[in-house]
Amino acid sequence: MSNNENLTSENLNFLLSTAAEAAFKAYGTDTTDKTELISFIENEVKEKIEAKEKSDKKLRKLQKTELEILLELDRVCRKHNLRYFIVGGTLIGAARGGGFIPWDDDIDVSMPREDFDKLVKLKDEFSDNFFLQTHKTEKDCYFFYAKLRKNGTYFGEDKFEHTGIHKGIFMDIFPLDYISDKGFIQKLCFKSFSLINAFICSKKLTSEFLYKNMSLPFIVTFRLIQCILPLPLLYGLRSLCAKLTSALSNKRLVASLAGFHGYPKEIAPVEMWGNGTDIEFEGKTVRAPEKYKEFLNHMFGDYMQLPPVEERINHTVAEENIIFEGVTKDGYKPKFKRKRSHRYYGVDYDIIPLEK
Fold first, then answer.
1. Domain ranges of the chain
2. What DSSP assignment string belongs to 102-129?
3. pLDDT value of position 51
């Protein structure tokens, strides 16, 4: 177990023995073997501490790999004068302490639509260690946004394990589209986009709790339309929805239609983004929204306030499903099949093992 100036091995052993003594006093009886109880408590605590240290080291290695990916995006964007902005927990971490939030395990960025579309065309500008993943660069990919992945690595998210897409360690890149300043049009755009995207996810068997609190007529209608509409048409409708969203705007507001926070948080004034500003992140210089403090207040409220411990969560990918090197294309092949398109509320997916 590694030492540090706050908790040396000597201090740790003292704390463990003190805790064990206290437990014995509180719960011990005349028939309790004091030595065995103390030994049991010490071993339990040591195992948990060692497991936590191991997990923290792997998370830190994951963060450093993601930083490599961000810096590769930064290199290509600066070379071609493309705007990008770190957002979400990445931006919170940069604003709070100049680096990752300690428990965060991903990086998110946003790009104005025109810059995003140019980036997709520049996919060959990335070095051989990286792959720009979109539905235009990989046949089975269906995302509206993009992922920049590191080749030879693996980040096994459960909802993609039945697919054959590239599953390398990644960062998300979300396009920003202009949107109307009229509330009812904003809602219509987000709801239309979400519905079309739900059809696509359903066909790709990656939908989540779509049926929660839904009426039977809606479920039947949804499944019927899902069966009728082909994927290419749905992809076209999704792109058309984004174009109409921009066409109906006065170009004062932009929105991330594919953003995880949804309506209305994913809508912000154009001037908040601007052309971006440099900000320190893990000792490097990357790009943030021009008025990033206002942007963070808009998205998260008091972003300097730490959330409760139970809300400090990440992707919760099993540690054995994170691999840092040596993964080949064969390593991205499906691990199993799914029988149906949705995870019904309270019931997991039906999984069919693949024949070896």
1. 65-353
2. TT----EEEEEHHHHHHHHHTGGGS-TT
3. 81
